[in-house]
Design a protein that fits this description.
By secondary structure, this protein is an alpha/beta fold. The chain is about 45% helix and about 15% strand. It binds iron/sulfur cluster (2 copies).
Length: about 400
């Protein structure tokens, strides 16, 4: 594992940080045992930065990280967690939330404390509520060690926040498709120029740049003389920037964790060759052409009052366009969002209320996009869902009848 230094404090952090927003799941909740095993394995392999938040997994992420860090693991790592501005109405809320987080994480201090997901308006609100005074006092009391913020606004707002306080660090979204989105490369350089450590979130755009990539992209990667997986290309591009301190990866699969740890063992700044950079540029252009919606799957737009699974619909809509020959995304859409598996949550339920759009850090025009998703993905749904539901009903009835004759429980 390689480490980089926090400029203002000299703290040494693993260049790979464990993002606890996508922990492994089982039966629709976190697979706690597996998540704890993964976290401890990462620590044993040199990862020392763990990023969580009350918003992740509806509060369960902090709980599980707290448990995973028992048995002597707490002393080996830095915990990063966040103050959700949307839960703060007055100054006293900040104290209350931090006290709860310390209890949940079973610790007496947070190493890296962030104001969560700031943009211009949320920053102005928090400033009005005297958040800087709160941070100063929490530091003095030893409850937090370093103060920072995570960010999803415009570059101007980013510069304004960087300049407003003696932050130790900040956290921005950055990957080879987001060089000019939100803070972007200009923001990265600005923060690093002011001696802030810069933590990176969404280095693979919520996994969109890894995994089974489209045929056109795969060909470009395959032609490279150096063989790397798409995830390795994406992460290496981010680590190639000397201004980057930690790259967070929302890990939940053992093979991916091991791959990321391996790559983090050699990802020195400015180690990509001009040929590597040219290849990544080619991939960038191809992605821009193929991708329909720039959704990162962060979930800030949820819950939708009409029941639409917004990131879920976008993920399958993108997959449908990225892999035009593959019918699976359309079937999965019908199965998952049409109500065959779980609740109905398809784009056609959208009532155009606009609530989601205000919360989206990518500033996506979600209500308009919901109309596009509906038009593209739901053409046959009115026919297919009742037919499949009828089929499932028949299969259930058949199982029930069989059980009457065999004496077995249909659920056994
Ligand atoms: S605009 Fe549509 S998708 Fe967005 S919150 Fe409202 S109903 Fe849900
Ligand atoms: S639509 Fe926006 S807020 Fe919702 S998951 Fe996608 S990027 Fe996040």
């Amino acid at each position: 594992m390689l480490y980089r230094t926090v400029p203002k404090t000299g703290d040494r952090l693993s260049i790979l940080g464990f993002g606890c927003m996508r922990l492994p799941s089982k039966n629709r909740s976190i697979d706690e045992e597996r998540a704890i095993r993964q976290i401890r394995h990462a620590i044993d392999s040199g990862v020392n930065y763990f990023d969580t938040a009350p918003a992740y997994h509806f509060g369960k992420s902090e709980q599980i990280l707290g448990k995973a860090l028992l048995d002597g693991y707490r002393e080996k790592v830095r915990i990063a967690t966040k103050l959700p501005h949307w839960s703060v109405r007055e100054r006293a809320d900040m104290e209350r939330i931090l006290a709860k987080q310390l209890a949940t994480l079973k610790t007496d201090h947070i190493d890296y404390y962030l104001l969560h997901s700031l943009g211009k308006e949320s920053w102005e609100k928090m400033e009005r509520l005297r958040v800087l005074e709160f941070l100063g006092q929490a530091k003095k009391a030893g409850k937090i060690r370093n103060a920072g913020f995570s960010f999803h606004g415009t570059l101007d707002a980013f510069r304004q926040i960087v300049d407003a306080y003696d932050w130790q660090f900040c956290q921005i979204q950055y990957n080879f498709l987001d060089e000019h989105n939100q803070a972007g490369t200009a923001g990265l350089r600005y923060a690093a120029g002011k001696n802030l450590a810069v933590m990176i979130m969404e280095p693979l755009r919520g996994g969109n740049l890894a995994g089974p990539v489209p045929e056109e992209i795969r060909k470009i990667w395959d032609e490279a003389p150096v063989k790397r997986s798409p995830a390795e290309w994406g992460l290496s591009w981010v680590w190639n920037h000397p201004e980057v301190t930690v790259v967070l990866s929302g890990m939940n699969n053992e093979a991916h964790i091991d791959e990321n740890i391996r790559v983090a063992g050699s990802a020195l700044p400015q180690s990509l060759t001009p040929d590597d950079i040219a290849r990544i540029d080619q991939v960038k252009e191809t992605y821009r052409r193929l991708m329909k919606v720039g959704c990162t799957g962060c979930g800030y737009c949820m819950p939708c009052p009409a029941g639409v699974d917004i990131p879920g619909c976008f993920a399958l809509y993108n997959a449908h366009h990225l892999f035009p020959k593959d019918r699976a995304p359309r079937f999965q859409y019908i199965g998952h969002h049409g109500g065959l598996i779980g609740d109905v949550s398809y784009a056609g339920l959208c009532r155009q209320c606009g609530k989601c759009e205000k919360a989206c850090p990518q500033h996506l025009p979600i209500p308009r996009l919901m109309k596009d998703v509906k038009a593209d993905m739901e053409g046959m749904m009115g026919v297919v869902v009742p037919v499949l539901k009828g089929g499932l009903w028949c299969m259930n009835q058949a199982a029930r009848v069989r059980s009457l004759f065999s004496g077995e429980s249909p659920h056994g």
